[in-house]
Design goal:
The protein is mostly helical. The chain has one helix and no strands. The longest helix is centred in the last third of the chain and has 31 residues. The chain is elongated, with a radius of gyration of 16 Å.
Length: 84
């Protein structure tokens, strides 16, 4: 489980870094933050092009694009940090 999602309701959790970097989606536009919630690259749902799922698919594709863009932007920064 990603560290930013680990429990922060006990003494010592801050020392362990739990909750650090968590972004509350409802504080952002469209209530979306491109943040890793699973800790693995896995897809559990693929909406179809039928009925209401067509609209859901459009929204999911927008989210996935935003996540991919955020990863691309973070990748060069991660490399710079490791060289310091």
């Amino acid at each position: 489980m990603p560290v930013h999602l680990r429990d922060t309701h006990y003494a010592g959790s801050k020392r362990l870094g739990h909750g650090e970097g968590y972004k509350y989606a409802h504080d952002f536009p469209d209530h979306f933050v491109p943040q890793d919630y699973l800790g693995v690259a896995k897809r559990y749902y693929e909406p179809s092009d039928q009925g209401i799922e067509k609209k859901i698919k459009e929204r999911v594709e927008i989210w996935r694009k935003k996540i991919a863009e955020a990863k691309e932007q973070a990748a060069p920064n991660a490399g710079q940090r490791s060289q310091e």
